[in-house]
Amino acid sequence: MSSVYKSPPPEMAAYSPPLTPPSKPARMPKGDPEPIDLHVPDNYVQHTLRTQKELPPITWSNWWRELQYLTVAILTITPTLALYGVCTTTLRWETALFSVFYYYVTGLGITAGYHRLWAHRSYNASRPLQYFLALAGSGAVEGSIKWWSRGHRAHHRYTDTDLDPYSAHYGFWWSHIGWMLVKPRRKPGVADVSDLSRNEVVRWQHRWYVWLILGMGFALPTLVPGLGWGDWRGGFFFAGALRLTFVHHSTFCVNSLAHWLGSTPFDDKHTPRDHVVTALVTIGEGYHNFHHQFPMDFRNAIKWYQYDPTKWFIMACRAAGLASHLKTFPDNEVRKGQLTMQLKKLRRTQERLEWAPDSNELPVVTWESFQEQSAKRPLILIAGFIHDVAAFLDEHPGGRHLLVKYIGKDATTAFFGGVYDHSNAAHNLLSMHRVGILQHGYRQGADDRAVPPAQRLRIARYNEMGASSTAVSDAETVVGEGGEREGKGEKDV
Ligand SMILES: [Zn+2]
Ligand SMILES: [Zn+2]
């Protein structure tokens, strides 16, 4: 579980060759179809978006010509039948239980089969499991494995672009159902499925697909309650039509709800999001932010308490000896994504706070000028910085007299324990009163006292490193700036 590839346990060796063997021959075996994306130009995405013609936008005058009538029929007749059935048929508890059970069976056909096995090759399945998933997935009536996986691989490869067949940038309803109801506005981006063309089970399902959807979508869910407890009508309407409506919209939510609702704990470059509601609705496909970052991982949910029955099903299949090579992304890399997002959040908090003036922004002041100006206003020198404490004189918890005593003097020792060892909060506050730097009096990096505690661990982008003395996490990185500062002309405070 800890590495991406593992060699199969000895008992698995008899299974069909792994879909993604750890090492592949450098050349394609003779006779195998060549991957369709082998010769795409380096600027494929840009080139295609610029040169490929799009179908015209859908308007009131052309919509009836642009509809995909077969899909429209399936997606309207099914819920209509379901509604009619619900209003006219008594629901028996046996049929209700079976409908829920069959919802999970056909849903898992899509999530564990179409999605995680065939589209993403996140584990290997034995032939019996593959046939089971192909049959179950047919019962969800969402197209053949090959067609579905081709579209889904394009969705991952071109997420949120016009080459993504269900780009979330066109809105919730487009990604949920709209993209199927009308002719695709442009061809989905290229995505290789030659591995699936070689797969015997995928080919078998593609060939018999119409019979399989009739059998698994309607005949079987009618037959089981009919033969089992005499509820033919309930079987057809509840386990057939109503269950199919739920499976449809449940899996469609992976393209819509999962790109719309929730948080982005692993990356925020694209629209996929994590949310428990989406997980509950989609048999565990709701941790979609994780999934788009680590699509070859057989899991969607990485915490044990998160709802991912598809993952549990795959693990159960492994325990039963039906699945192997369950892939997981290295935990170390998963944590990097999480840390980056946490730091981004902290950075926003950091940016909302006010900080002491940067040492580069302060004027350099001679000792004589400091003395001269201290006579006019209360200036105190601490750790090389000159502070104007006028606004703080009466607020000082130790009393005004202790501040007055150090006007025009160096209070570094007194501040850092000589008289009182001030708190970090006091040090932070002190830095907000900085008005200048004493010439030759300041050596950054020589002393932690020069950097306020709240600024010792600041978050900085890599291109801000060294750009300013206090934007880096610790003082040691800017040793040497003192010389430059000394060269600056004397200024008034
Ligand atoms: Zn997605
Ligand atoms: Zn996916």
From TrEMBL:
Spans traversing the lipid bilayer: 67-84, 96-117, 208-230
Location (main, coarse): membrane
GO cellular component: endoplasmic reticulum membrane
Entry EC no(s): 1.14.19.1
Keywords: Electron transport, Fatty acid biosynthesis, Fatty acid metabolism, Heme, Iron, Lipid biosynthesis, Lipid metabolism, Membrane, Metal-binding, Oxidoreductase, Transmembrane, Transmembrane helix, Transport
GO function term, MF aspect, one: stearoyl-CoA 9-desaturase activity
Residue stretches making up the Cytochrome b5 heme-binding domain: 347-439
Residue stretches in coiled coil: none
Cofactor: Fe(2+)
Biased composition range(s): Basic and acidic residues: 482-493
Keyword check for Transport: yes
Reaction(s) catalysed by this chain's protein: octadecanoyl-CoA + 2 Fe(II)-[cytochrome b5] + O2 + 2 H(+) = (9Z)-octadecenoyl-CoA + 2 Fe(III)-[cytochrome b5] + 2 H2O
Classification via CDD domains: Delta9-FADS-like (cd03505)
Superkingdom, taxonomy of origin: Eukaryota
Any Gene Ontology biological process: unsaturated fatty acid biosynthetic process
Family (UniProt): Belongs to the fatty acid desaturase type 1 family.
Summary of the function given for this chain in its UniProt record: Stearoyl-CoA desaturase that utilizes O(2) and electrons from reduced cytochrome b5 to introduce the first double bond into saturated fatty acyl-CoA substrates.
Protein name: Acyl-CoA desaturase
Organism: Neolentinus lepideus HHB14362 ss-1
